[in-house]
């Protein structure tokens, strides 16, 4: 009964805490709310008129929504790069950032599920994915596996930080025997969510662009580059706009993770390009369309030729120790690396897989403004969720949110 009372007061205190803040905080939350409202309006148009208002067709049936879904699965998985050294390897330098990383994973997973709902046309068809009610087709369907691992990873990333924060809210230390097993499971689960997503594409035999043995490992490498890069940018903002202290060595260690992952990702990219273009076959047409255009169609050229130079520039700059330890350079590199991987792992991966079609027809895809605003609305929702989670976590960790047992009991008995 006492535990339930304490939890109820933590929820109440957290809701009160996130509604108060500086002028900058309120401007940020209002901005996100406006973007979400515009996105909701555009989504209502999609619900009313159907997916015909998007740029997707029966030729290119996955577009901006699934591109963002695929990328955000990697961002969510990247939390493991902070969880493992903190909880498993006992590296205290990561301890300040791990709850922020797990909050980012929760926000990313919420966005993943929202993009899936948007791509399916509406929430009314989600019953098809419910085991025992819909056509779940488990274990034969890779999509069914994807649903399981994503929801399971979301559950893990909510329960472990919630337990730790709840103990700290009560002024107690979290018991390692409770959260360490869950942390180890989350490490394995993080790898699983990205590999299963990669297998979802690799298993489509009619799409040779995705039939690549390196797709799974590249998913992991790009995730462990883009995800921690975003975490560094978030930590930089937290250091600037809050009292929460993030040590320089914490950011430097995460930067090393980003650097190694970016180098591996670039090596794998070069290997893929060699495979596609050194001895090309008719299965290389998707790659030719992406990098050079095909039959006069070249909608993706500006995207990919923006992504590759940014990827190379960021990786080269991060490789040099002095440049990486210059935080202004580091933040710039993390930003352009994040953008580069978002392009390459989004449009650069999903759309070319449908071009050319089974009969050789080239039908290009361009997202409509409805899609763009729905996408921005979902990103704003993710940022909104993360901001609330981060503010609550920081408040508890700084001791501003604490359960005052005697005061609570007196107020309830009065």
TrEMBL record:
It is a multi-pass membrane protein. Keywords: Cell membrane, Membrane, Transmembrane, Transmembrane helix. GO terms for cellular component: plasma membrane. InterPro entries: DsrP-like (IPR054823), NrfD-like (IPR005614). Pfam families: NrfD (PF03916). It is found in: Cell membrane. The keyword Cell membrane applies. Its main location: membrane. The chain crosses the membrane at residues 27-46, 66-87, 99-122, 142-166, 178-199, 219-238, 250-270, 300-320, 329-352, 372-396. Belongs to the NrfD family. This is Prokaryotic molybdopterin-containing oxidoreductase family, membrane subunit. The lineage of its organism: Bacteria, Pseudomonadati, Bacteroidota, Flavobacteriia, Flavobacteriales.
């Amino acid at each position: 009964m006492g535990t339930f009372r304490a939890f109820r007061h933590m929820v109440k205190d957290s809701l009160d805490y996130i509604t108060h803040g500086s002028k900058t905080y309120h401007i940020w939350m209002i901005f996100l709310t406006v973007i979400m409202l515009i996105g909701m309006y555009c989504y209502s148009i999609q619900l009313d008129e159907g997916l015909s208002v998007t740029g997707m067709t029966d030729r290119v049936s996955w577009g901006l929504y699934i591109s963002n879904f695929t990328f955000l699965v990697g961002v969510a998985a990247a939390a493991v790069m902070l969880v493992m050294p903190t909880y498993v390897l006992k590296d205290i330098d990561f301890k300040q950032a791990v709850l922020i990383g797990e909050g980012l994973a929760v926000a990313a997973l919420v966005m993943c599920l929202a993009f899936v709902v948007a791509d399916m046309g509406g929430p009314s068809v989600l019953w098809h994915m419910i085991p025992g009610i819909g056509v779940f087709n488990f274990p034969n369907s890779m999509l069914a596996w994807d649903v399981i691992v994503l929801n399971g990873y979301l559950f893990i990333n909510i329960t472990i930080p919630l337990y730790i924060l709840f103990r700290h809210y009560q002024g107690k230390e979290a018991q390692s025997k409770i959260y360490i097993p869950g942390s180890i499971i989350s490490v394995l689960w993080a790898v699983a969510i990205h590999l299963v997503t990669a297998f979802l594409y690799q298993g489509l035999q009619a799409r040779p662009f995705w039939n690549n043995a390196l797709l799974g490992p590249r998913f992991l490498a790009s995730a462990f580059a883009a995800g921690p890069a975003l975490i560094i940018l978030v930590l930089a903002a937290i250091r600037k706009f809050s009292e929460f202290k993030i040590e320089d060595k914490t950011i430097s260690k995460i930067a090393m993770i980003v650097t190694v992952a970016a180098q591996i990702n670039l090596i794998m990219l070069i290997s893929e390009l060699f495979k596609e273009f050194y001895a090309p076959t008719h299965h290389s047409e998707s790659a030719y369309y992406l990098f050079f255009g095909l039959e006069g169609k070249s909608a993706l050229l500006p995207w990919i030729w923006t992504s590759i130079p940014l990827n190379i520039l960021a990786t080269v700059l991060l490789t040099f120790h002095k440049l990486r330890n210059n935080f202004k350079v580091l933040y710039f590199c993390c930003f352009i690396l994040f953008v580069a991987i978002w392009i390459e792992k989004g449009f650069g991966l999903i759309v070319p897989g449908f071009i050319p079609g089974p009969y050789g027809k080239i039908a290009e895809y361009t997202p409509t403004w409805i899609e763009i605003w729905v996408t921005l609305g979902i990103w704003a929702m993710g940022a909104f969720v993360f901001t609330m989670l981060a503010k609550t976590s920081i408040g508890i960790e700084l001791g501003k949110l604490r359960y005052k047992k005697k005061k609570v009991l007196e107020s309830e008995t009065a």
